[in-house]
Amino acid sequence: MIYIIDDDEIMSECIEKACKKPARVFSNAIEAMLDITGGELPDLIFLDILLDGPDGFAFLDEMMSYPDTKKVPVVIVSSLDFKNKDLSGYGVVGILNKDEMRPEEISEYVDKYVK
Amino acid sequence: MEEEVDGILVAAHELKAPLAVLRQLAFSFDELSANNEHIRAEMINVSERAIRQVNDLAKVRRLEDGLFEMEPVAVRAVCDEVTEELRHLFLGEKKGLSIHYTNKERLVTANRELLRSVIYNFLINAMHYSDTKFGAELTVKDHYDRVKVIVRDHGPELPWAIWKEMKEGWIDHPTEIAMRPGSSGLGLFIASKFSKYMNASVGAVRHRDGTSFYVELPISKQASLF
Hints:
- The complex is a heterodimer of chains A (115) and B (226).
- Chain A is of the alpha/beta class and 115 residues long.
- Helix content of chain A is 36%, strand content 20%.
- Chain A has helices spanning 9-19, 29-38, 56-64, 103-113, and strands at residues 2-5, 23-26, 44-47, 74-78, 92-97.
- In chain A, strands 2-1-3-4-5 form a 5-stranded parallel beta sheet.
- Chain A starts with a strand and ends with a helix.
- Chain B is α+β, with helices and mostly antiparallel strands and 226 residues long.
- In chain B, 49% of the residues lie in helices and 19% in strands.
- The termini of chain B are far apart.
- Chain A binds chain B through residues 8, 10-11, 13-15, 17-18, 50, 79-80, 98-99, 101-103, and chain B through 13, 16-17, 19-21, 23-25, 27-28, 48, 51, 55.
């Protein structure tokens, strides 16, 4: 299952459509984290950074604090500029800039990480 | 002052968010008929240009932090990159763009990102003011110990006031005098600010049938590959 965490409903819909596979959408990090710790692990997470409430990095810190969740691949989807930033220590496998990303870039990550 | 800077940057982010959504929405339309495909392309182009302008404005605010490092930059490579990006826009507008490299390949001392924005803004301006008969022209040539990048359009004459201001140095704000019909002068303001940061000179040449805007950059003394 793919998880999309973004407080912009329309952006989430666009990402979901580009995934072409079932996805669950969360508008904040707390809901997503509660779901992850209480159930099955997602195959891939698309994560916005500037969220209402705890931000994307708070979510990543939480993910890194459990041995099973730290292995879940995360793709950052943000308008912030993370060019040349190495976030692999947070389990981040990719960074997409909302200003420039194209749907096929999203589906490439899905093809790579979701069975 | 600190709060004011943060406020502008936050506002820039807020402005970009709906533009990014609009752009993604255009991508997410199901297949459109050939007649309507241009609508998708136009939505993407318009939102990308607006996003770029907001990003440039945010960069103007960040100039005072001195975060943009100067480095040897291959000026032709930057021109190639920008013209390639804008090629489809010129085609969509049915306007021509000719490129003339009259010097050897040069490295100039600049910040690549800022130089890219300067040339981009000059070319967008030229596209707007050129007609379908006479396209825009991009020329790169040596000028003493500097490299001059010139963008020529065939639009209305540049008002005397703005020409005078450019002769004297820089456009300090996007005011009415920086405007030609249908323009806010914002692109020129951004180009002027970025050029000043890079110790480059900007200027304009008035023609009877248009204007040439140029930026002059110092040739890099650190390295010369050619």
